[in-house]
Specification:
This protein is α+β, with helices and mostly antiparallel strands. It has helices spanning 32-35, 66-75, 83-92, 95-103, 107-111, 118-135, 138-145, 147-161, 166-173, 184-196; strands at residues 4-12, 16-21, 24-30, 44-53, 58-63. It starts with a strand and ends with a helix.
Length: 198
């Protein structure tokens, strides 16, 4: 099994990269999050890899961090989530944010990822929450203690349920003075005013 590649980056695209290792070019599929952290073509690069072997082909999936690789390997243990689906999930949400969303049982955040429906989101939470908490026992207490993060997530969830796209909603929310918001309703109204501005 190929667990890591170090060599020269000779091609990169949002779908895959090619690394020259001693004259051999390895084609590695990557998430958009990993792609965004790649160096320029011609630069040295080290990628953590997962080798996926099927009867008719061998595929390499690459990650710029061990955390992303670990979560990818957990995702593919879930029924109905294959390597390409797992890569799509990690393209839609950074590994750390995915772990936090699972620990908070934030199904709405997971469903905001293209191709992830309610049933798949709930299955991911059910099957991975305990596994992730064993590795990061502090994450649950930190999430519970973070009232501000929960408040933010609730406002974002409400706006998305009203039909607003996540990027537009988050951009408007950045302009809202959170410390002045006493209630969830007040925060939602303030953000809607920002969204209504030209």
């Amino acid at each position: 099994m190929i667990a890591q590649l170090s060599g020269t980056l000779i091609h990169k695209s949002p779908q895959y990269l090619v690394i020259d290792v001693g004259g051999v070019g390895y084609r590695v599929m990557v998430s958009l999050n990993s792609f965004s952290h790649l160096p320029d073509i011609g630069a040295p690069v080290t990628i953590h890899t997962h080798t996926h072997l099927r009867e008719d082909q061998l595929s390499l999936f690459g990650f710029t961090t061990i955390e992303e690789k670990n979560i990818f390997q957990k995702l593919i243990t879930i029924s109905g989530v294959g390597p390409k689906s797992a890569l799509t999930i990690l393209s839609g949400i950074p590994a750390g944010e995915l772990r936090d969303a699972i620990s908070r049982e934030d199904s709405v955040r997971l469903q905001s990822i293209p191709g992830i429906g309610k049933k798949t989101a709930e299955r991911i939470i059910i099957e991975l929450k305990d596994k992730l908490l064993k590795e990061h026992p502090a994450s649950e207490s930190l999430s519970a203690a973070s009232g501000a993060q929960r408040f933010y997530d609730d406002v974002l969830s409400a706006l998305m349920n009203l039909g607003y796209q996540r990027p537009a909603a988050e951009k408007a929310m950045q302009r809202v003075p959170w410390n002045d918001m006493a209630t969830l309703e007040a925060a939602i109204r303030a953000t809607l005013k920002e969204l209504a501005k030209p």
